[in-house]
Design a protein that fits this description.
The structure is a single chain. This protein has about 500 residues and is an all-beta fold. Helix content is about 5%, strand content about 45%. Strands 1, 4, 5, 39, 42, 43, 44 and 47 form an eight-stranded antiparallel β-sheet that branches. It has a six-stranded mixed β-sheet with strand order 2-3-38-45-40-41, with no helix packed on it. Strands 6-34-33-32 form a four-stranded antiparallel β-sheet, with no helix packed on it. The longest helix is centred in the middle third of the chain and has 8 residues. It starts with a strand and ends with a strand.
Length: about 500
């Protein structure tokens, strides 16, 4: 009797990258490799590209990007390269040196920035320079003239706000804060040293949630040791000020390891990415957003030198329903982005050839939630998620694709299967170009079976019948190869096989 011929249609791995579960037990909706793909559920799509928005932003690394929203609704963008602050609002044109009046940073370009009273405040993270601000109109940045540690404001670091006051971290466990709506003048010190038990210094001091959240807003102080203090009240010298919580979390990576997802504060730590609200729940069993990629995430940050810590940062992009984390891969001598869908919390790994991003920021947030911009080591600012081609210093670059679904037993763990063919259901523009293959019973190869169609350039549905090979109980479908200037969306996969005997 002939072997029974069967076809099974399976969904693409919409739940994304999974490096945590054993490969023999990983849900088929996950992927064992997921490079330069993304999904918000339903389909798996090749990511969009990047392009060079501003060239020649100085001659060094662009380590800080920030947006300033003015009262008239217009937007401004700055980029900081080495010791100079530039107005980079107009794409494609030469940036304007806002430091031309002699107010250059003494050294370094990594800065903490904050919009406060329609001004963009800038504080370098080296503790060397003064606090500066830009109103979006003046030809140069202005010294704020705060008086803090040492009689000026140089020995301040990160900047945040809480209930209409500016708060700065110092080089210890103190916070320095100003008056209501004050943009200059004397700062007042509040020392947490007697309350923190693990030492270190402050990395974050400010609001627990974005202003406007319906829940109560608290003041949060987070140390380099992951220790967290939570206060309620108006400000430290107020009679309403009181300590309401003392928590111990994992160690944050650096000064720029904090960002908001909506109203929620997100922490990037050496153990993973998590919400502050999960720490404040009181449970020691933290639920990391990055749980499914914990091994890769921790590996990327293992033994990260302090000099690289502030390149580890994150942004939430409502426009694309994603969170992007910039990580430094010293083992690969470059940066990569770990990207999470905020719809289904799937994770994906994005790699751009010939590109190292030192900072990420959202700009143009009045348009559907904004777009992501990256400051590069090439002295330029790039826009992420633009078209379908990577335009880098080396020109248009092909996007390397790797998608390997988890091994699927096709609901039958008992029988051996002879895999014969596969029919992907896939949309592409610019004609079909697909390299697809399969692994059987936990093997790991590279796809070589290529299908092309150059008869049309429109975005259309393709269902090519492609050969498979291998005999075993389970298989993984994989896509390898490159893509340039093409949109791709994997909808479903039909697998053909003949059923053999029992194992």
């Amino acid at each position: 009797m002939a072997d029974k011929a069967i076809s099974v249609t399976i969904p693409p791995p919409t739940m994304g990258w999974n490096t945590k579960d054993p490969i023999s037990e990983t849900d088929p909706l996950y992927a064992l490799e997921a490079v330069n793909f993304f999904s918000n559920g339903g389909t798996v799509d090749a990511r969009k590209g990047v392009y060079n928005r501003n060239t020649e932003v100085g001659t060094y690394i662009v380590s800080t990007i920030a947006e300033l929203a003015l009262q008239d609704g217009s937007l401004k963008m700055i980029g900081i390269s080495q010791s100079t602050v530039y107005d980079t609002t107009n794409p494609g044109s030469s940036p304007t040196d806002l430091s031309a009046g002699g107010t250059k940073l003494v050294s370094g370009s990594e800065a903490s920035t904050l919009i406060f009273r329609n001004k963009l405040f800038i504080k370098d993270l080296t503790g060397i320079n003064d606090v500066w601000y830009w109103d979006g109109v003046s030809a140069s940045i202005t010294a704020a003239g705060f008086t803090g540690p040492g009689g000026d404001d140089k020995l301040l670091y990160s900047i945040n706000s809480y209930k209409s006051r500016l708060y700065f971290t110092g080089n210890d466990l103190s916070v320095w804060y100003g008056g209501v709506d004050a943009i200059s003048g004397a700062l007042t010190q509040f020392d947490f040293q007697s309350i923190f038990t693990k030492g270190g210094k402050l990395l974050y001091a400010g609001a627990s949630a974005k202003t406007g959240d319906t829940q109560q807003e608290y003041f949060v102080a987070i140390s380099t040791k992951g220790e967290i203090l939570v206060y309620q009240g108006d400000y430290p010298a107020s009679t309403t000020w009181s300590l309401v919580g003392h928590y111990y979390g994992p160690t944050p990576v650096g000064y720029r390891s904090f960002f908001y997802w909506g109203a929620s504060l997100v922490l990037i730590t050496y153990q993973g990415v998590l919400l502050l609200s999960d720490i404040l729940s009181g449970s020691n069993d933290f639920v990391f957003l990055s749980d499914k990629i914990s091994g890769e995430f921790i590996s990327a940050l293992t033994d990260l030198p302090a000099a690289y810590s502030n390149a580890v940062c994150g942004v939430f992009c409502p426009n694309e329903n994603l969170i992007m984390i910039n990580v430094v891969r010293l083992d690969l001598f470059k940066t990569e982005q770990f990207v999470m869908s905020t719809i289904n919390r799937s994770w994906w790994r994005w790699v751009i050839p010939d590109m190292d991003f030192q900072h990420l920021a959202i700009y143009d947030n009045k348009i559907m939630g904004g777009y992501i911009y990256g400051g590069s080591a090439h002295g330029a600012i790039y826009q992420y998620l633009f078209a379908y081609t990577d335009v880098t210093p080396s020109g248009n670059q092909a996007m390397t694709l790797k998608l390997k679904s988890a091994f699927n037993y096709l609901e039958d763990r008992s029988h051996v299967k002879n895999f014969t063919a596969v029919r992907p259901v896939i949309y592409q523009s610019g004609g079909l170009g697909l390299t697809l293959g399969n692994d059987v019973d936990f093997s790991d190869t590279t796809a070589t079976n290529t299908e092309t169609d150059t008869t049309t350039s429109t975005y259309k549905l393709y269902q090519p019948l492609m050969g498979l090979n291998g005999i075993g109980r389970c298989l993984s479908i994989r896509i390898d190869g490159t893509l340039i200037g093409r949109r791709m969306s994997l909808q479903a996969i039909e697998v053909f096989y003949t059923q053999g005997g029992l194992v």
